[in-house]
Amino acid sequence: MNVQLQTIPQLQTEPIQPQFNIPRWNLALRIAFRFWMVYLGLYCLATQIIITLFSIPGSEAASPPDPAALWPLRPAISWIGAHIFHVNAPLTVFWGVNSSSADCIFAWVMAFCVLVVSTAATVVWALLDRRRENYAELHKWFRLLIRFALAGQMILYGMGKVIPIQMEYPSLIRLLQPVGTLSPMGLLWVDMGFAPAYQIFCGCTELVGGLLLIVPRTATLGALVSLAAMIQVFMLNMTHDVPVKLLVFHLILLCCFLLAPDVPRLVRFLLLRQTTSLSTQVQLFRSVRANRITLAVQIIFGLWLVGAACYFAWGAWKIVGLSKPLPPLYGIWDVKQMSIDEQPRPPLLTDSTRWRRAIFDFPEGMAFQRMDDSFAKYVASVNLPERTLALTKRGDKNWKANFTFQQPAGDQLILDGQMDNHQVHMELQLMDRNSFRLVSRGFHWAQTSPFGRYYRDPEGK
């Protein structure tokens, strides 16, 4: 009797990722994870770090206030500042009414609050969850959040240098200011802005670090690149008094958190010259398909961050970049002659009302330099067809000036009109921008001697 055996089709199942036995974490490691998860998580949620991840290009909420600046956190932080640190003045906040500093007192008090809350939460967490052997499952998800929190900042600041808008090319007013009158931050901004190629190079480093953080397999390398970039930025901030020290310090902490699991491997490989195993890529799910979908989502979200940062930077470049629109009377104009109420005003250093120079650098503003080299800025409106110039002050609604102007030649300007109820006449001469050595010096491959080392050559040659 012949019996035919039929092959029973097997159900096709999705591959399952192998699971490894995770050893018990020691007490110090468990405590450290609890603290840093709470501390870094709260800091990211309270500052611009979380805002960057959800910025929508073109929306009015592109730069919303930091969460810590909102109710009810702001009154609580302000109360702590007043009663614990005895700060009597109202605490201004980053993106707030009177501050654009990330190192304002509010930010420091907020960081103190985060530290205290994190310490208390760590103690409570340790008491309630002391039997837990490890936090491997929680760590992999929190690591994902930290990766993108750091990547968002690296991409944002990197793109702001790749499209060089963070440090603008020195304005005409900057060119007129003596070096000794610049603040340390102003000196750094002039230096970086004058060399856009170096600014772009620094931006590429930050941007590459952010891009590497997006893909799990390259996240460790991205954290290393980001750490190197942020240490350099932190040192510049510390040595030039740039008010972003607190934020950059926390970005360094984010880098260290991501690198912590790989420190033993890095030490063995880089310092001890020993062979080491490859870093195990911890998968978020057991399903291969789910992990592939998750990877695709991460890459798409990373590209979204890049696109949003590029949109913001390009929009700013059109306003403040080298291709920005210039005002009709662009340039530095030396005031050769000036009279007020038909009384000639010779160029005396003691005359606080006489203009020394008029500077037209931006389409909607101008400045004049007094005889003592201080500057006054005004809102300016130039009407070319009618040959008129109107000036107003932002802080004084009653002050105004209206001039008619003539240009007998391209480098000559004559202003006649009323300024603060006084009849004013000025004759001005356009200054050659190339007369500034910083602008005209250029680049030289071969030099017979260093140029500008004043301690050896008083003339700077």
Task: Describe the overall structure.
This protein has 13 helices and 9 strands. Mean pLDDT is 88; it is low at 7-14 and 95-99. With 461 residues, it is α+β, with helices and mostly antiparallel strands. The chain is elongated. The chain has an 8-stranded antiparallel β-barrel. The longest helix is centred in the middle third of the chain and has 33 residues, at 288-320. It has helices at residues 27-46, 48-53, 73-83, 105-128, 136-162, 172-176, 184-194, 196-214, 219-240, 245-259, 263-271, 288-320, 437-440; strands at 331-340, 343-344, 355-362, 365-370, 375-383, 388-392, 400-406, 412-419, 422-430. A hairpin with a 2-residue loop joins strand 8 and strand 9. The protein folds into 2 domains: 27-320, no CATH class; 331-435, Lipocalin (Beta Barrel).
Low-confidence blocks of residues? 7-14, 95-99
**Structural class estimated from helices and strands:** alpha+beta
Q: Determine the mean pLDDT.
A: 88
Order of helices and strands: HHHHHHHHHHHHEEEEEEEEEH
What about the largest sheet?
8 strands, antiparallel, barrel
* Outline type: elongated
Number of strand segments: 9
Annotate the secondary structure layout.
Layout: H1 27-46, H2 48-53, H3 73-83, H4 105-128, H5 136-162, H6 172-176, H7 184-194, H8 196-214, H9 219-240, H10 245-259, H11 263-271, H12 288-320, E1 331-340, E2 343-344, E3 355-362, E4 365-370, E5 375-383, E6 388-392, E7 400-406, E8 412-419, E9 422-430, H13 437-440
Antiparallel strand pairs: 1-2, 1-3, 1-9, 3-4, 4-5, 5-6, 6-7, 7-8, 8-9
Helix pairs in contact: 1-4, 1-5, 3-4, 5-8, 5-10, 5-12, 7-9, 8-9, 9-10
